[in-house]
Amino acid sequence: MYPMDFEEFLLAIGNDTLFPAIKREILELYRNDIQKHAKGSELKAESIFDEIPAQLSKHEKKIQAFFS
């Protein structure tokens, strides 16, 4: 057996209807942490966080440097 991601886990236990709400809650917790730990750079940190899905979907699978 292989490790499941969170969505697969919810599907396996038959609770896939809660996934969108739980996912939004987790993302909100990440955003709160970003604001708490990125004092003075909140906007830049949030833009980097928002860019992660687009960067991961690229074919070359390399994250571009945002900190230049």
Overview of the molecule:
The chain is an all-alpha fold and 68 residues long. The protein is 62% helix and 0% strand. The protein has three helices and no strands. It has helices at 6-12, 19-37, 42-57. α2 (19-37) packs across α3 (42-57). The radius of gyration is 15 Å and the shape is flat. The mean pLDDT is 78.
Note the total helix count.
3
Query: Helix/strand/pairing class, anyone?
Result: mainly alpha
Distance between the termini: 42 Å
How much strand content do the residues show?
under 5%
Helical content class: 55-70%
Radius of gyration: 15 Å
H-E order: HHH
How can the largest sheet be summarized? none
The beta-strand count equals: 0
The stretches of 5 or more residues where confidence is low (pLDDT under 50) are: none
Overall geometric form: flat
Mean pLDDT across every amino acid position: 78
Topology:
Layout: H1 6-12, H2 19-37, H3 42-57
Short précis:
The chain has 68 residues and is mainly α. It has helices spanning 6-12, 19-37, 42-57.
